[in-house]
Amino acid sequence: MAPSSLDRTDRKILAILQADGRIATVDLADQVGLSPTATTERVKRLTREGFITGYGARLDPTRLDRSFLVFVEVLLDKTTPDVFDRFAGAVRRTRDVIECHMVAGGFDYLLKVRVADMAAYRRFLGEALWSVPGVRETRTYTVMEEVKAEPGLPV
């Protein structure tokens, strides 16, 4: 099913579930104006078709000693498949990297990293990032204030 083939009710279900993945089916059905059975079938279809990929809780990074947030530009020494694969594998094994995106432009990857503090970030750089063969240069941007951090998508 293409996104344009989602009807208004599908989009409403997705928006509600995105805001509260633990909502009871009866309450979800009430909010979208369908029976619980019809609502359950729609949620199953949306999951089967890949619109819903999972459920989870949003956690407070401060409470988990991960309040230090940085973005890191990474420039590789070569842009070959083996260098890309080696870097991607290293990033996937690193718990501190929350997001990693290959980008077009003046550098190759943009990382979102969460650690406890500057000392932990320095350790991350030395042990996890600069030790990866092929990393030529990094630039770090320390987040001073999270102005907006919406986990959901516009539906």
Task: Describe the protein's architecture and organization.
The structure is a single chain. This protein has about 160 residues and is of the alpha+beta class. It has 2 domains: about 5-50, Winged helix-like DNA-binding domain superfamily/Winged helix DNA-binding domain (Arc Repressor Mutant, subunit A); about 70-140, Alpha-Beta Plaits (2-Layer Sandwich). About 35% of the residues lie in helices and about 20% in strands. The protein has helices at about 10-20, 25-30, 35-50, 80-90, 120-130; strands at about 70-75, 95-100, 110-115, 135-140. Strand 2 (about 95-100) and strand 3 (about 110-115) form a beta hairpin. Helix 2 (about 25-30) crosses helix 3 (about 35-50). The radius of gyration is 20 Å and the shape is elongated.
> How big a fraction of the residues is strand?
15-25%
CATH class of the largest domain: Alpha Beta
Number of H- or I-type helical stretches: 5
Strand order of the largest sheet: 2-3-1-4
Helical content class: 25-40%
Number of E strands: 4
Whole-number total of structural domains: 2
Mean pLDDT: 95
CATH H level, superfamily name of the largest domain: Lrp/AsnC effector binding domain/regulation of amino acid metabolism (RAM) domain
Unreliable stretches: none
Q: How many strands, what sense, and barrel or not for the largest sheet?
A: 4 strands, antiparallel
Distance between the termini: 15 Å
InterPro entries: ArsR-like_HTH (IPR011991), AsnC-type_HTH_dom (IPR000485), Dimeric_a/b-barrel (IPR011008), Tscrpt_reg_AsnC-like (IPR019888), Tscrpt_reg_AsnC/Lrp_C (IPR019887), Tscrpt_reg_HTH_AsnC-type_CS (IPR019885), WH-like_DNA-bd_sf (IPR036388), WH_DNA-bd_sf (IPR036390)
Keywords: Activator, DNA-binding, Transcription, Transcription regulation
Protein name: Lrp/AsnC family leucine-responsive transcriptional regulator
Domain HTH asnC-type: 6-67
